[in-house]
Write a structure and sequence with these properties.
Number of strands of chain A: 3
Order of helices and strands of chain B: HHHHHHEHHEH
CATH class of chain A: Mainly Alpha
Strand order of the largest sheet of chain B: 1-2
Strand content of chain B: under 5%
Largest sheet of chain B: 2 strands, antiparallel
Structural class of chain A: alpha+beta
CATH superfamily of chain A: Winged helix-like DNA-binding domain superfamily/Winged helix DNA-binding domain
CATH topology of chain A: Arc Repressor Mutant, subunit A
Number of helices of chain B: 9
Radius of gyration of chain B: 23 Å
Largest sheet of chain A: 3 strands, antiparallel
Distance between the termini of chain B: 14 Å
Shape of chain A: globular
CATH architecture of chain A: Orthogonal Bundle
Helix content of chain B: over 70%
Radius of gyration of chain A: 16 Å
Largest interface: A-B, 21 and 24 residues
Structural class of chain B: mainly alpha
Number of strands of chain B: 2
Strand content of chain A: 5-15%
Strand order of the largest sheet of chain A: 1-3-2
Oligomer: heterodimer
Number of helices of chain A: 4
Chain lengths: ~110, ~230
């Protein structure tokens, strides 16, 4: 596994929760949103195993609903548990991001 | 949305894929569906998501390998570890349904053929007589053999997906022929070598056909009510 995908694995889960929190989202739309935010070389298919896992952990719930463009799609939304998990992810991320940034910054000098 | 409706939707949508992606997708679909212990609802929901995604990618000239990675089988295995198992109760219902179906058809066939042979050609008697103990035991052995056979056929099918080179059709035919012959042979062995035990029962052919018909109607009703296969 490349260094990038190693790094991304845990983070992607948090990002998916964050995107779903903005508004109920279906699979393809989710992968496009991640791409738009700049996570462009995340393999598109890699979200589906994660979505299955998040459903199993009851952090998200999927419902088949008609979309505006017509066909039925599975829209995901966060559960109470999911909101808590997202908050925990943000907390952990903040506590890692700051020190890692300053370590790297120091290393550059 | 019921899994059976999702399957129907999948069948229709799949036709819109380009030839190459359709071949890729159908390999993935077969490989994933052959895992019969997984929740049918979850399996069909994720299969439809993959199809929807692939349809969008297809329109942009991308292939399944661009979306799901070079190694499609590894990707499917990754999905399979995350798909939850089917509920035990649902599995029990399903297997009971299959046994009911089998019994209904066997009884109908046995009753009608037995009655026909006796009244039209004077062959045999007007009823079926067999020792209850050995009859039941043979039935159980046959059911176990069928279950074992199904497991082996599913394994064989799973192994036949994602093949780089197309296997010779005759070799595949011979393999399947051999598997089937072994199981038919084993059930004949059980039938021929089973010693008679238990009281002998006599059941009129029309009785057997009648109970077959009743079982069949019950099976139809259950299937309609609980959507087991439709």
């Amino acid at each position: 596994m490349s260094q990038r995908s190693q790094l991304l694995k845990g983070i992607l889960e948090g990002c998916i929760l964050a995107v779903i929190k903005m508004e109920p989202t279906y699979g393809y739309e989710l992968s496009m949103k991640l791409k738009d935010f700049g996570l462009s070389d995340v393999s598109e298919g890699s979200i589906y195993p994660i979505l299955l896992r998040l459903q199993k952990e009851k952090l998200i719930v999927g419902e088949m609903k008609s979309s505006e463009s017509g066909p039925k799609r599975k829209y995901y939304h966060l559960t109470e548990e999911g909101i808590k998990a997202l908050q925990a992810f943000i907390y952990h991320w903040e506590s890692i991001k700051q020190p890692v940034d300053s370590i790297i910054e120091k290393g550059r000098e | 949305m019921n899994a059976k409706d999702i399957i129907k939707m999948n069948n229709e949508k799949r036709e819109q894929l380009s030839e190459k992606n359709k071949a890729y997708y159908e390999d993935m679909l077969t490989y994933i569906r052959l895992n019969t212990t997984k929740s049918e609802q979850q399996t069909e929901e994720v299969l439809l998501e993959l199809l929807d995604h692939l349809l969008e990618a297809d329109a942009q000239g991308k292939t399944a390998k661009d979306v799901f990675g070079e190694d499609l089988q590894a990707y499917c295995n990754e999905l399979l570890t995350e798909i939850p198992g089917e509920k035990v109760l649902k599995n029990i219902y399903f297997i009971s349904f299959l046994i009911l179906d089998l019994l209904a058809i066997l009884a109908l066939f046995q009753g009608i053929v037995g009655y026909g042979l006796y009244t039209l050609f004077d062959i045999g008697t007007n009823s079926l007589s067999f020792p209850l103990g050995s009859g039941l035991l043979i039935g159980i052995i046959d059911l176990l053999l069928i279950a074992f056979w199904v497991v082996i056929i599913l394994k064989w099918l799973k192994g036949s997906t994602f093949q780089k080179k197309k296997q010779n059709k005759w070799i595949e035919f011979l393999q399947l022929w051999l598997i089937c012959s072994v199981f038919i042979g084993l059930s004949l062995v059980a039938f021929m070598f089973m010693p008679d035990f238990g009281i002998t029962v006599n059941i009129h052919h029309l009785m057997i056909a009648g109970s077959g018909l009743i079982l069949y109607l019950i099976k139809m009703f259950i299937n309609k009510r609980f959507r087991v296969t439709t």
